[in-house]
Specification:
355 residues; alpha+beta; Beta-Lactamase; Helix Hairpins; Heat Shock Protein 90; 5-stranded antiparallel sheet; 5-stranded mixed sheet; 12 strands; 42% helix
Length: 355
């Protein structure tokens, strides 16, 4: 142990620690903090009681126990005063007041917020995926039981239930396909593409693929391109998936007998895409989406109208896949929706875009 009267000369050693660290003296005052602590836990109130720095009872009790000779300990806490961030805090005795016998305490902070949030997301994802698969599976089991009984002897009933089973099997296949797409895009999200993607070609492929479905609903896909021959760093297959998903939504939820417009332009605000950026907007004339739903549209399994989405064949994962692909391409997704102009999804590619 180092005598407390020499502590001032040793506080500089906190800077050698690779994590945020704070020193609490024998009077429970915050007397030192390294730069990492100042950056991560700001403000660190120097010369003030620990309770004015962290008001968490578990932290205060642990500090008291260490100060009173309890030995080093590690605690896990959620600090609501730091925006609900979670930490593992290692508290170790350091120095000793010769008069009172109390020790000082070094607190080292290891943030686990990302890990905890990932665990929560994984748990929620498994529960949601299980729920989504259970529904069509239950329908399939019920239909099989029905046609296996006396009702199966009736040709009309059998045909109706076989059609229902085919529909639910397709729904499960689409969900599994989207889950696999989502898994792949999450793995690649941090890898910036190095190939060149031709925006016009991607849009042409996606619109050609969706044109028959659009016309079956009385809609026509119209392309307005004011930035021809525009390219960007990107994976054309993944970008094709983005615009196919956006067009699929436009066809599903757009009004019948109304156009679906794809506009390729310079970004409305250059700060979003830079002077060489490009914006691709997919707009339909469907019912407006209420403002409170817009921030959550890219969440997994989030649906504004669950019954309508399932009836239309949606898995609730399309926009989540779009989000992860655009994150990889360092692009942004902007969404606006109102009763007058309908709903518009705009993808803004950054300054790397070039003709």
């Amino acid at each position: 142990m180092i005598n407390m009267e020499h502590m001032e000369d040793n506080t500089v050693h906190l800077e050698t620690l690779p994590l945020p660290a704070v020193y609490i003296d024998s009077r429970r005052l915050v007397t030192a903090a390294n730069q990492m602590a100042q950056d991560a836990l700001s403000p660190v109130p120097m010369g003030r009681d620990l309770a004015q720095f962290i008001r968490n009872p578990q932290v205060l009790d642990a500090c008291e126990a260490v100060r009173n000779g309890g030995g080093a300990m590690t605690i896990k806490v959620c600090l609501t005063s730091r925006g609900n961030r979670t930490f593992e805090i290692r508290l170790s005795p350091f120095g000793k007041n010769q008069q009172t016998g109390d020790a000082g305490v070094i607190m080292v902070f290891f943030e686990t917020t990302a890990v905890v949030e990932a665990q929560k997301m994984r748990s929620t994802f498994v529960a949601d995926a299980s729920h989504e698969l259970r529904s069509p599976l239950t329908t399939l089991i019920g239909a099989l039981e029905t046609i296996s009984g006396k009702a199966g002897n009736d040709a009309e009933t059998r045909a109706r239930f076989v059609k229902l089973m085919q529909s639910e099997a397709d729904r499960m296949k689409n969900l599994i396909d989207d889950l696999l797409h989502l898994s792949r895009t999450e793995v690649q999200q941090h890898i910036v593409p190095t190939s060149i993607a031709q925006i016009d070609r991607v849009i042409a492929r996606a619109s050609e693929r969706m044109q028959d479905r659009a016309r079956a609903k009385g809609c026509e896909i119209v392309i307005n391109n004011t930035c021809p021959n525009t390219t960007t760093l990107g994976d054309e297959d993944q970008l094709y998936q983005v615009f196919q998903n956006l067009l699929d939504n436009a066809v599903k939820y757009g009004a019948s007998d109304s156009p679906i417009t794809i506009s390729i332009t310079k970004p409305v605000a250059e700060i979003l895409g830079g002077p060489d950026g490009v914006q691709v907007s997919v707009c339909n004339q469907g019912p407006a989406i209420a403002p409170e739903h817009l921030p959550r549209l890219t969440d997994r399994f989030y649906r504004v109208d669950e019954a309508r989405s399932r009836q239309a064949g949606g898995t609730g994962l399309g926009l989540a896949i779009v989000k992860h692909i655009l994150n990889r391409h360092r692009a942004r997704l902007l969404i606006r929706s109102d009763q007058k102009d309908g709903t518009c999804f705009s993808v803004v590619f950054p300054t790397q875009a070039a003709k």
